Amino acid sequence: MRSAFGKMKTAFLLAVTALILAGCGKENLTALVPKGVGAQKSMDLIILTTAVMTLVFLIVIILFVVVLVRYRRKKGQEDYIPEQVEGNKTLEIVWTVIPIILVLVMAVPTVVYTFELADDSKAKDHINIDVKGNQYWWHFDYKGEKIQTSQDLYIPTGEKVYVHLLSNDVTHSFWIPSISGKLDVNPENENTMYIEANEEGVYWGKCAEFCGPSHSLMDFKVVAVSPDKYKQWVKDMQNFDPKKFKPDTQVAQEGQKLFEEKSCIACHAIGPSPVATGPNLTDFGNREKYAGILEPTKENLVKWIVDPEKEKPGNKMTGKYPKVTEEEAGKIAEYLMQLKPSSVTPETVSK
Ligand code: HEC
Ligand SMILES: [Cu+2]
């Protein structure tokens, strides 16, 4: 019969395995299942360096065991001293040159890949997006397209998309683990890299630089769609006219009015606009998550509007608008959830 302890151990191992597996794949927040060019290159480097280090580890362990066995003190040989080799030129050269070669084997591809990924000399032939990091949200301005969005970044698969990273406040770090490596988002200088997704999917992005109390909640999504769907999305976004948009229920229309009365409009643009004190809400109804982290339900949206501080401590919306009751928030929510300019959404992505 198995002991209770044995059963607990099995359960624990199963739980850990389940957690690890859940971390891989499902939410696309892993560098170990690459779905983009940069992530694939990182993965190649991870495999190369792990192989080199494993080789070194094995050689060292084998030598260690050989020495232990061969030169242990044996009966009758207590005073035996093996041959001493200090100052042996050949040996010194061998164990200096081999590590240098191994370091070169790892360093050369790393440097080459790093420069390749940061090369923006051909950027003008591709899609360019100005990315602004803000405590604790992301803004995306599609250069020359008159499209502005926040939180959900739409890109076509199989194409290089150059992101030009700048921060509006402190230093952030732009990271989509399954698509590409990290790059700092600084307030004073623009950093550029390209991202390229190999297949359709919704990929989880994160801020990877501690930037304040809600740093760990500074999430965004990359929605990679086929080039055809992407073209459709661009067209839909450009054709959307916020001035002509009228919600189709009485409640939502009241919500639209409240959105102005409660000065939400002072920070949140709908349609392309230089206003970016808060996330652009043009395609808010299609968001994969609200405020980057909340499941997109009306209930969550009401909670957010009434008291955003509870969901994201230290966010820059709290306290900057007149008090909103739950009823009013419900009406605003009805309005915002109808902002769906495109039929291309995170749900239409083939998974
Ligand atoms: C002072 C500027 C400001 C005002 C006024 C303001 N907000 Fe915000 N809002 C923000 C900021 C900044 C964020 C991003 C917070 C974060 O994620 O850290 C935000 C986030 C949001 C989000 C989530 C957006 C997304 O892309 O998921 C919604 C919805 C929202 N606000 C609705 C409202 C409503 C409704 C009002 C009016 C009652 C309002 N806001 C007033 C600045 C403002
Ligand atoms: Cu950040």
From TrEMBL:
<keyword id="KW-0186">Copper</keyword>
<dbReference type="InterPro" id="IPR014222">
    <property type="entry name" value="Cyt_c_oxidase_su2"/>
</dbReference>
<keyword id="KW-0479">Metal-binding</keyword>
<keyword id="KW-1133">Transmembrane helix</keyword>
<dbReference type="InterPro" id="IPR002429">
    <property type="entry name" value="CcO_II-like_C"/>
</dbReference>
<keyword id="KW-0472">Membrane</keyword>
<keyword id="KW-0813">Transport</keyword>
<keyword id="KW-0679">Respiratory chain</keyword>
<feature type="domain" description="Cytochrome c">
    <location>
        <begin position="250"/>
        <end position="340"/>
    </location>
</feature>
<dbReference type="InterPro" id="IPR034236">
    <property type="entry name" value="CuRO_CcO_Caa3_II"/>
</dbReference>
<keyword id="KW-0812">Transmembrane</keyword>
<dbReference type="InterPro" id="IPR011759">
    <property type="entry name" value="Cyt_c_oxidase_su2_TM_dom"/>
</dbReference>
<protein>
    <recommendedName>
        <fullName>Cytochrome c oxidase subunit 2</fullName>
        <ecNumber>7.1.1.9</ecNumber>
    </recommendedName>
</protein>
<keyword id="KW-0408">Iron</keyword>
<keyword id="KW-0349">Heme</keyword>
<comment type="function">
    <text>Subunits I and II form the functional core of the enzyme complex. Electrons originating in cytochrome c are transferred via heme a and Cu(A) to the binuclear center formed by heme a3 and Cu(B).</text>
</comment>
<dbReference type="InterPro" id="IPR036257">
    <property type="entry name" value="Cyt_c_oxidase_su2_TM_sf"/>
</dbReference>
<dbReference type="InterPro" id="IPR009056">
    <property type="entry name" value="Cyt_c-like_dom"/>
</dbReference>
<feature type="domain" description="Cytochrome oxidase subunit II copper A binding">
    <location>
        <begin position="124"/>
        <end position="236"/>
    </location>
</feature>
<dbReference type="InterPro" id="IPR045187">
    <property type="entry name" value="CcO_II"/>
</dbReference>
<feature type="transmembrane region" description="Helical">
    <location>
        <begin position="45"/>
        <end position="69"/>
    </location>
</feature>
<dbReference type="Pfam" id="PF00034">
    <property type="entry name" value="Cytochrom_C"/>
</dbReference>
<comment type="similarity">
    <text>Belongs to the cytochrome c oxidase subunit 2 family.</text>
</comment>
<dbReference type="InterPro" id="IPR036909">
    <property type="entry name" value="Cyt_c-like_dom_sf"/>
</dbReference>
<dbReference type="Pfam" id="PF02790">
    <property type="entry name" value="COX2_TM"/>
</dbReference>
<dbReference type="InterPro" id="IPR001505">
    <property type="entry name" value="Copper_CuA"/>
</dbReference>
<dbReference type="InterPro" id="IPR008972">
    <property type="entry name" value="Cupredoxin"/>
</dbReference>
<keyword id="KW-0249">Electron transport</keyword>
<feature type="domain" description="Cytochrome oxidase subunit II transmembrane region profile">
    <location>
        <begin position="23"/>
        <end position="121"/>
    </location>
</feature>
<feature type="transmembrane region" description="Helical">
    <location>
        <begin position="90"/>
        <end position="115"/>
    </location>
</feature>
<keyword id="KW-1278">Translocase</keyword>
<dbReference type="Pfam" id="PF00116">
    <property type="entry name" value="COX2"/>
</dbReference>
